[in-house]
């Protein structure tokens, strides 16, 4: 049996309560932004990291939205970005003429967001809005920003609430700093 997740966490950076409060604010911001929308926006979760945030965010909104999913990979099994994001799974439906809401877990180097923006921009979306749970501005390699960011954080490798290390820890309910010993093994 694998050991529990909590023992691999150095410290809790954001508690469940802190996250929930910011998710509510982001949802209210989006409701206001889409108030006069004729058609439901298409909300896109960038899998897999953003899926936990995506589900909580959308359920905190009052605006009707459609859901779609896309998988972009950039990390492999390391804690450093490779810098070459790959579209592993594309959207199920076209976005031309639609309001697109892209939901990200974290903007780190910015390569993944840039890739998504270029790709979806080229498909003729009517509007493009990016909401991210986390932003690590100190790590940016591409000049790009989300329209709304819930938390700006220091340059530390974190896991939980959707974020992983080697596909683990996504189901932690909070966001924590992973012990260095876990990835230096
Ligand atoms: P990018 O470097 O901005 O392209 O970040 C791409 C992806 O790297 C994010 O969507 C996350 O899945 C992952 N990532 C970046 N920083 C962290 C971290 O601290 N913990 C876990 N995943 C991360
Ligand atoms: Mg990841």
What does this structure look like?
With 185 residues, this protein is an alpha/beta fold. Helices cover 23% and strands 29% of the residues. It has four helices and nine strands. A six-stranded mixed beta sheet has the order 4-3-2-5-6-7, with helices on both faces. Helix 1 (16-33) crosses helix 2 (51-60). Inosinic acid is lined by residues 49, 74-75, 81, 85, 104-113, 157-159, 163.
Keywords:
185 residues, alpha/beta, 6-stranded mixed β-sheet, 3-stranded antiparallel β-sheet, 4 helices, 9 strands, binds inosinic acid, binds magnesium ion
Helix-strand layout with pairing:
Elements lengths: L8 E6 L1 H18 L8 E6 L3 H10 L5 E8 L12 E4 L9 E9 L3 H11 L5 E9 L12 E5 L5 E2 L15 E4 L1 H4 L2
Parallel strand pairs: 2-3, 2-5, 5-6, 6-7
Antiparallel strand pairs: 1-9, 3-4, 8-9
Bound molecules: inosinic acid and magnesium ion (MG).
The site of magnesium ion has 3 residues, from loops.
How would you describe the shape? Answer: globular
Q: Unreliable stretches, pLDDT < 50, 5 or more residues? A: none
Largest sheet descriptor: 6 strands, mixed
Question: Could you tell me how far the N terminus lies from the C terminus, measured between alpha carbons in angstroms?
Answer: 19 Å
Helical content (DSSP H or I, runs of 4+) = 10-25%
Number of helices in the DSSP assignment: 4
Small molecules bound: inosinic acid, magnesium ion
Going across the biggest sheet, name each strand in turn: 4-3-2-5-6-7
Secondary-structure element pattern, one letter each: EHEHEEEHEEEEH
Mean pLDDT, to the nearest integer, reads 92
């Amino acid at each position: 049996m694998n050991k529990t997740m909590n023992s691999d966490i150095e410290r809790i950076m954001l508690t469940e309560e802190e996250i929930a409060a910011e998710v509510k604010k982001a949802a209210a911001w989006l409701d206001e932004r889409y108030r006069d929308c004729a058609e439901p926006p298409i909300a896109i979760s960038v899998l897999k990291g953003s899926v936990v945030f995506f589900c909580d965010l959308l359920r905190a909104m009052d605006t009707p939205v459609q859901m779609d999913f896309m998988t972009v990979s950039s990390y492999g099994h390391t804690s450093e970005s490779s810098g070459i994001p790959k579209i592993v799974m594309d959207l199920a439906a076209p976005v031309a003429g639609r309001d697109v809401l892209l939901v990200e877990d974290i903007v780190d180097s910015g390569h993944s967001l840039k890739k998504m923006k270029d790709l979806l921009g080229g498909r003729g979306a009517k509007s493009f809005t990016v909401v991210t749970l986390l932003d690590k501005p100190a790590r940016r390699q591409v000049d790009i920003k989300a329209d709304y960011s819930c938390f700006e954080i220091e340059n530390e490798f974190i896991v939980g609430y959707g974020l992983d290390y080697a596909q683990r820890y996504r189901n932690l309910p909070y966001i924590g700093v992973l012990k260095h010993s876990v990835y230096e093994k």
